[in-house]
Amino acid sequence: MSTVRREERGFLAECARERVSPPKRSVFPADLLGLRENTRIPVTVRGEALFRQILLKKAKKADDRLLFSFRQKPLSRRTIMNKTYKVGIIGATGMVGQRFVTLLDGHPLFRPVVLAASARSAGKRYEDAVGDKWAMGVPVPAYAKDMRMLDAEADAETIARQVDFVFCAVNMKKDAIKALEERYAKLEVPVVSNNSAHRATPDVPMIIPEINADHLSVIAAQRARLGTKRGFIAVKSNCSLQSYVPLLHPLKKFGIRCAAVTTYQAISGAGKTFATMPEIVDNIIPYIGGEEQKSEEEPLKIWGRVEDGRIVNADGPVITSQCLRVPVSDGHTAAVFVSFEQKPSKAEILAAWADYAGEPQKLGLPSAPGQFIHYFEEDDRPQAKLDRMTERGMAVCAGRLREDVLFDYKFIGLSHNTLRGAAGGAVLLAELLAAKGYFD
Question: Which strand (E) or helix (H) includes residue 117?
Answer without folding.
Answer: strand 110-117
